[in-house]
Amino acid sequence: MYNMVLLAIEWASIGTKVLQFILSFSILVVLHELGHFLPARWFKCRVEKFYLFFNPWFSLFKKKIGETEYGLGWIPFGGYVKISGMIDESMDKEQMQQAPQPWEFRSKPAWQRLIIMLGGVTVNVLLAFAIFIMIMWIWGDRYVPVSNLKYGLYADSLGRKIGMKDGDNIIAVAGKPIERHGSAGSEIIMNEAKTITVLRDGKPVELTVPPGVIGQLNKNRLLGLALVRYPDVVDSVMPWSKILKGDVRKGDTLIGIDGHPIQYLSDLIKDTTFDYIKDEKVVSLTYLRNGHDTVQVQIQRNEKEKGALGLHYKPMEDILGSVHVTYTFWQAIPAGVNKAMETLSNYIRNLKLLFTSKEVKAQDSLGSVISIASIFPSTWDWQSFWTLTGIFSILLAFMNVLPIPALDGGHALFTLVEMISGRKPSDKFIEYAQMVGMVLLFSLMAYALGLDIFHAFKFK
């Protein structure tokens, strides 16, 4: 029964991630395509299809309303609207060989075509602004200040390469002060920092970042630098736990395992002595209660029960304390817009590193829908869901506006050239450019998917 509960929890966790990804991605795709659909209809263009996800060979659902077929495809890599007289993903060459009709995209003035092409990007930008504004208004901004890390950090492998010691606290990267916990790793990568400053025994100490650390930090998804040290305090005990024997209560602090002292959660990683725990049938835990009483608890497993204890510990924010900034609706508007633009700025800086950095490699930075789905939390959290949706919306807008054939930015570039020069590129040229762009995009998607599959099997 216990193993069935654990298996159900694991599958529920994966299912929750997948559902959040599908919902988020569907919102972004539908609204992006609506950004093309609405101006096309305003300018009297005929829209033949409106699809969520791609539908080669068959559709999961389709229904024609008026002159437009609405449908659901089966490949969750995007979506599309098929506008009459436009060279797009459908590559409808037969239609383009016929004489232009008044309701076709190619018959419209250049300025109308430009608005139609940039409609999706515009909607994604406005959606990101709206999401971040609402997040700031409803939830505000919560973070753990670096100054609150009173127990310091545990220096993991990359931290030790830099020269960090347990108890250090990173207070600056490349001379720039760090205010929020969790930002040091990304700042090191984005700035290709040569130095960091730590607070050690109350005094600032500057450490040099050796070659190779930035590349490893980026490859490991920011893992391996340092972990926050704080005591393990029980928050709740799950009633279904069958392997935990003893009276453990909310508020108890873990201080020992089989006679080995435990001070912080990071001690379980730091001390390899504890590697045996996952395979041991009987393990003794020592808890401190009310600051002076000790309580002994045992883990008793049989051959089939080697899973979780059924204990939930207090999160770092509850133990160390956090700052919660609240906003009125009018204050949330500039705060939300700034958050969206900051997200975009950081993404562009990271993208730039792929072409300029000797350490940041594409194979360590790219990811497919598998990577995107894995980012979502394993339990449904609306704040996390909308935050990630807002981030993806602003990034989708940026990626689509790049002047690459097959993307909105490529079509917009050709239209701008036409408006400036007065000469419209031939349909044959646009057709070939579309084909080249699609090959590049699908190759990149296949490469990213391959990397995800490789990483998944590599770390099994």
From TrEMBL:
Residues 21-444 form the Peptidase M50 domain. Pfam families: Peptidase_M50 (PF02163). One of its GO terms (molecular function) is metal ion binding. Its EC number is 3.4.24.-. One of its GO terms (cellular component) is membrane. GO terms for biological process: proteolysis. Its main location: membrane. Its cofactor is Zn(2+). The keyword Membrane applies. Keywords: Hydrolase, Membrane, Metal-binding, Metalloprotease, Protease, Transmembrane, Transmembrane helix, Zinc. It is found in: Membrane. The chain crosses the membrane at residues 114-139, 385-408, 429-450. CDD domains: S2P-M50_PDZ_RseP-like. Belongs to the peptidase M50B family. NCBIfam families: RIP metalloprotease RseP (TIGR00054). This is Zinc metalloprotease.
